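ARCHIVE CARD
CATEGORY: sequence design from structure
SOURCE FIELD: tokenized fold
FIELD CONTENT:
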């Protein structure tokens, strides 16, 4: 079953665009933090949903939200780093384009940069780039679910019409029988 779903989504994931990831200082809540960012041509809602799924898949359970920033302290996120780190996530959306900001700190504002931890920085970049394909796949799934729901609604309406038609047919048949009996 999973193979069928993956085979159906494979062409969609191939259509995902390459995402540029940049490093810069970004205001996260009240603090300036060094972070990695990527811009996606998708709505913020679906982007946040996929990010949430990835966090759950990583086994990260405890997190807080402050001023639009999701904070995961002392978490191990193996896709990014096998060591415990603090993760700060923020999204910003404008005109169907969403930017994801991801800051990773090894503690005490020791933020990961390409210069001080190239391996972790490469993992962060890869994570943000893979996110594009995952968002595209999630959008395709939602679209197919909406199409399926529309078809189900059409089928229900057709069933109601069929029942109505059968009832009308039975009434007309009864009227015809009454007329035939009345002629005798």
């Amino acid at each position: 079953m999973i193979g069928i779903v993956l085979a159906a989504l494979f062409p969609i994931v191939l259509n995902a665009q390459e995402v540029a990831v940049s490093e810069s200082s970004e205001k996260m809540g009240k603090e300036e933090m060094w972070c990695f960012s990527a811009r996606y041509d998708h709505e913020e809602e679906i982007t946040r949903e996929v990010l949430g799924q990835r966090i759950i898949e990583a086994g990260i359970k405890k997190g807080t939200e402050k001023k639009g920033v999701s904070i995961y302290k002392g978490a191990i996120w193996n896709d990014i780093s096998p060591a415990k780190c603090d993760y700060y996530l923020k999204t910003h959306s404008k005109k169907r384009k969403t930017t994801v900001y991801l800051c990773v700190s090894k503690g005490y504002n020791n933020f990961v940069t390409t210069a001080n931890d190239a391996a972790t920085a490469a993992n962060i970049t890869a994570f943000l780039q893979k996110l594009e394909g995952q968002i595209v796949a999630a959008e395709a799934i939602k679209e197919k679910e909406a199409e399926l729901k529309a078809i189900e609604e059409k089928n229900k309406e057709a069933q109601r019409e069929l029942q109505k038609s059968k009832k009308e047919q039975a009434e007309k048949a009864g009227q015809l029988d009454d007329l035939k009996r009345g002629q005798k």
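CARD ANNOTATION: The helical segments are 2-14, 44-57, 118-183. The first strand starts at residue 21 and ends at 28.
SHELF: design records, drawer C
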